[in-house]
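Researcher: Predict the fold of DUF1572 domain-containing protein.
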Amino acid sequence: MKLNEYLANRLKEIFTEGKWVLGTNFKEQIIDLDWKQATQKIDDFNTIADLTFHIDYHIAGVKKVLKGGTLDIRDKYSFDYSPIKSEQDWQNLVSKFCLDADEFIELVENMSEEKILSDFVDKQYGNYCRNIDAMIEHSYYHLGQIILIKKRIK
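Model: Structure tokens for DUF1572 domain-containing protein follow.
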């Protein structure tokens, strides 16, 4: 299997299609929630809406780089979003997440191995492969949180 296919399959596993690692994926966990569940605060945890925005923020930011743009995202802004105040707000966030994830996966799927192994934006950030792999790991961490929060809500 080629490196681009391997990474794209891992991204599909965590974001849109998978069930092998956790028995679920991000899309499956957020798609059936309503806006009140998604914004329900449990103890001092982030809400599911917070975590969905947070992961989509990173997907969209790295996606921009894969399309030839600049890296403009900053961790300090990765939870800064307009509050979810309606079902439509929540559905807009879910739709954006799903579209960004699908496009991100497609961009990775179409990357050459040479590009995947080249420096990501700046040598200090390592290569594209390292950054894509870190995104997968980061997403699993937050998906685990969503699963636990969702169990507490339901």
